[in-house]
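User: My advisor, Dr. K., asked me to get a structural model of this assembly before our group meeting. I'm new to this, so sorry if the format is off. These are the inputs:
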Amino acid sequence: MSKEMSQLAAERPDFAAIAAWIPKGATVLDLGCGDGSLLCYLKETRGVRGYGVEINDVDIVSCIANGVNVIQNDLDAGLSDFENDTFDFVILSQTLQATRYTEALIQEMLRVGREGIVSFPNFGYWRTRLDVLLGNMPVSRELPYQWYDTPNVHLCTLHDFEDFCRHASVSITARSVISGGHEVGLLPNLLGSTAVYRFQRGL
Amino acid sequence: MDNSVGIVTAQRAEFDTPLTFRSGAVLPRYELVYETYGKLNADKSNAILICHALSGHHHLAGYYAGELKNIGWWDNMVGSGKPVDTDKFFVVGLNNLGGCHGSTGPSSNNPATGKPYGASFPMITVEDWVASQARLADRLGIQQFAAVIGGSLGGMQALQWSLAYPERVRHVLAIACAPRLTAQNIAFNDVARNAILTDPDFHGGDYYQFGVVPTRGLRLARMLGHITYLSDDVMANKFGRELRTEQYNYGYEVEFEIESYLRYQGDKFAAYFDANTYLLMTKALDYFDPSHDFGGDLNRAFARAQADFLVISFTTDWRFSPQRSREIVRPLLHNRRNVSYAEIASAHGHDSFLMEQAHYFDVVRAYIGKVSKEFSA
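Assistant: The format is fine. Below is the predicted structure of the whole assembly, which you can bring to the meeting.
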């Protein structure tokens, strides 16, 4: 792994968790791909092929400069440019909480991809709970925004997401919960700061 | 001017191998005028072709000796350190066949008759242009372009390059473009053509012999075109309901600023552009449809393409709206081509592709910068 990628992996522990589920040479669609870091990481570590979708102008330029295929679009407008079953994986990394039509988007992910992967900040993390208990909205590494300028409109806990999947007929096939760069085994909804889920269409 | 390529000279290439057009017509010989900027590298891998739109030509950048104000139409984009960087690339611009800026067209003399081609000049298509451009590339020793770039009708030529010569172009930049015209677009073109065709000075296209020019028709055609190139917002901001006169005159003379502007643009254009070329260009736009031979299926049409693509649209462009650019992106996704798509927020309508705007230029600069890393200088 190149130095740049090692650094990326250190900064974004969910990247390694996502990469671990992706077989070599898979096709992926990364929704809310930012500057294309994850796609670069997956290209280098897993040899994936694919596209990112992003709405932010500055990120579009970064993706292009990074050699990442990027389609400028608003995720809340759906994924109508993509045909059914186009990708092995559709990834929504640290973006779920900022989508408006979250349920529709998850269904769209499973329309264009065979499997979905999401990562999001766990609102059930003990520090987050403590902040709220002490009377303030949490501001942390995972949730760096003040309440009045946050793009995050759909924050949830591990329990919430799993309830949602049951309700939406989405079948979770794997889960990885991370805190401080390490996998959390015990009390994940309390001790995990970041959740990563792998899922597919429910039967 | 900063980073201009400086003084440039137009060149001329003569071709005496007959060119058979898509219509079946044959042009026995023809000339193309072109300009080049920058240096072709040793393995000839750094060439970029820029295709022009309806009223464009070969003079992309720089200026002519003794004509400092005759600056190329894409001088903001093409030059030293500019998004299409002439320090790294060998850039080629040409005047398309059928044009009126020096390449063989309806106003050129037909050697067989000694008179201008006029109405006898064959109906030309985007496919025919690209075939003639490929011959120019052969002449320049360019086997494969690093990129072919075009806006609007120029974008269609860039797309056609990837379909006609998949192995001869590595990157295609299609800007403010569409894969094929809609009925609305054809309708605008038809009104423009009718303005020219019904001008009494048109003489069935052979007006040269009568020493007249269908100025009224060409002027109207351009006025109509101009309306479709600007956005409603730009017109509102630039002209609004401003009057040229103190008050309403209750007559048909120019009163509103927008009327004055359109007439000025129409007159300016009619003074130098050839009406037959205008007719040909609009028909080429109408005819272009890569899916024509594939039952209307763009997915199948683009299956041949091997290039990587950058597709760019502008939010207020309603002549070729962002939706139309996505119609280019979709078949490329279907065929799993490398493609990026940027939708630029811009107030300037279809004309945006000619204007320097930071984000637009950043996108092109980033893409072309990436292309420049694929070969050694």
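One thing worth pointing out at the meeting: The beta strands of chain A are 27-31, 49-54, 70-72, 87-93, 113-121, 170-179, 182-183, 194-201.

User: Perfect, thanks a lot.
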